């Protein structure tokens, strides 16, 4: 398939997920805790099921890695990675800052990605070698003169281990911490790609949490890597504890890595 047809399919997947999610937003729905105590709702499952139906019909030889329904055709060189609602806690709280994440991996490397916010109608689309688009128009990260000027975001301090949290707070102390943003999950990466945030740092992310974000951030002029500066691929979550840096201005990368390491031990 061509990149153009892959992107067209990815956009249809986002439409299918959004149609499944919208009826449940700020409405009655069932939910339960998964094995790791994170919540899952009817909407998560309905959205992933809708996307899987489409993939089974249109790309039957491609693999699927989904947050709710697991992996199909794991040996395929092309793998669609689906997170139907990234930010389920925000969704359950009626906050429209969650998103559907759709990625296509080629041999384990992110080839394209979508962040879709189905309530506000916001969609970021990224593909390797292409400029990132936000609702059809180019999205661009902003420059950042120093860490002291940087607005840093993370989903929440509760997602860091004590060890990782120490590293994160050491970095946070060097940024404009009075402007630090908590909450937002994938939405923060879209805001970074559009030039509204400078830096997102997280730990414990799984492949479905970050695969779609890489082409979006990089196509907007930013960079994504682990806390050691290594690029992210299908093995990153297992190899590095899901440590992720997204940075709008790649010129600050060394400063960020140094900042995270300054309490190393």
UniProtKB/TrEMBL annotation:
Family the entry assigns: Belongs to the inositol monophosphatase superfamily.
GO biological process: L-histidine biosynthetic process
EC number: 3.1.3.15
List of residues binding Mg(2+): 67, 83, 85-86, 209
Top-level taxonomy: Bacteria, Pseudomonadati, Pseudomonadota, Alphaproteobacteria, Sphingomonadales
Record-linked InterPro entries: His_9_proposed, Inositol_monoP_superfamily, Inositol_monophosphatase-like
Keyword terms: Hydrolase, Magnesium, Metal-binding
Cofactor requirement: Mg(2+)
Single annotated GO MF: histidinol-phosphatase activity
Protein name in the entry: Histidinol-phosphatase
């Amino acid at each position: 398939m061509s990149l153009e047809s892959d992107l067209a399919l990815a956009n249809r997947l986002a439409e299918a997920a959004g149609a499944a999610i919208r009826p449940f937003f700020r409405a009655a729905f069932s939910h339960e805790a998964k094995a790791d105590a994170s919540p899952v709702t009817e909407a998560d499952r309905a959205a992933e099921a809708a996307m899987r139906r489409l993939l089974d019909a249109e790309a039957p030889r491609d693999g699927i890695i989904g947050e709710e329904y697991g992996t199909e055709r794991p040996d395929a060189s092309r793998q669609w990675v689906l997170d139907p609602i990234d930010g389920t806690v925000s969704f359950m709280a009626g906050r429209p800052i969650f998103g559907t994440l759709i990625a296509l991996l080629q041999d384990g490397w992110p080839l394209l990605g979508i962040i879709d916010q189905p309530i506000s109608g916001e969609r970021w689309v990224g593909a390797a070698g292409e400029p990132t688009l936000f609702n059809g128009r180019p999205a661009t990260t902003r420059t950042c003169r120093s860490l002291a000027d940087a607005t840093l975001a993370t989903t929440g301090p509760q997602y860091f281990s004590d060890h990782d949290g120490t590293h994160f707070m050491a970095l946070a102390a060097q940024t404009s911490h009075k402007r630090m943003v908590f909450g937002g999950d994938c939405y923060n990466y879209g805001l970074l790609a559009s030039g509204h945030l400078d830096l997102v740092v997280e730990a414990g992310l799984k492949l479905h949490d970050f695969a779609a974000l890489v082409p979006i951030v990089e196509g907007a002029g930013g960079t994504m890597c682990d806390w050691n500066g290594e690029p992210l691929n299908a093995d990153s979550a297992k190899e590095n504890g899901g440590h992720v840096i997204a940075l709008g201005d790649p010129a600050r990368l060394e400063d960020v890595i140094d900042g995270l390491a300054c309490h190393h031990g």
